[in-house]
Recover the amino acids of this structure.
């Protein structure tokens, strides 16, 4: 968050030690500088994230329901910013389908997308059917997930899983009660 003194504070988990690490960065106001900061944040998260199947950088997140056809996609329809929808869309591998998944020693992950925006449960709601979106990274509880071995991506605060609501392009990704169904199974690939 940018304050009156033009100082930005990031609270980021150091995923190797599990301790909190704080970055204090002096910046200038402006869109270009925000992109530079977003790039640096992705680089930092990529360095501390594991390189295993559950963490890393430049990952495609495919939904099992769509086979190899549907990927987690950040909408570019109205530009990237707070509240940009995240849905499934046919896989094309462009930047809006590339994700950085960090992982702490506690198994909690931040999922960082295009321009350094984080995957976020809208309004920090815990209700089934709540969509996910892009939002400036604040690493609050509605931006923490557990990527499980069997493919579920579980939001930490609610304990609910990410689910695709269909197999068509732009089908929303929402919170839902965890089940063993293909619409809740996500494959992280390089």
């Amino acid at each position: 968050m940018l304050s009156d003194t033009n100082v930005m504070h990031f609270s980021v988990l150091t995923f190797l030690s599990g301790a909190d690490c704080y970055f204090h960065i002096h910046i200038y106001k402006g869109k270009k500088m925000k992109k530079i900061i977003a790039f640096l944040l992705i680089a930092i998260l990529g360095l501390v994230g594991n390189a295993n199947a559950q963490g890393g950088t430049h990952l495609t997140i495919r939904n099992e329901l769509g086979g190899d056809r549907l990927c987690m996609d950040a909408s570019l329809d109205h530009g990237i910013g707070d509240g940009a929808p995240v849905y499934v869309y046919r896989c094309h591998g462009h930047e809006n389908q590339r994700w950085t998944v960090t992982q702490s020693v506690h198994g909690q992950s931040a999922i960082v997308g295009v321009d350094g925006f984080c995957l976020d449960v809208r309004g920090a709601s815990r209700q089934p059917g709540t969509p996910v979106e892009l939002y400036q990274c604040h690493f609050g509880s509605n931006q923490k997930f557990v990527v499980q071995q069997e493919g579920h991506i579980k939001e930490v605060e609610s304990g609910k899983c990410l689910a695709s609501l269909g197999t068509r392009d732009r089908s929303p990704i929402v919170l839902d009660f965890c089940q063993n169904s293909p619409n809740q199974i996500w494959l992280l690939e390089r």
In short: The CA atoms of residues 23 and 139 lie 13 Å apart. Confidence is low (pLDDT under 50) at residues 1-28, 45-53. The longest strand covers residues 56-63. Helices lie at 31-48.
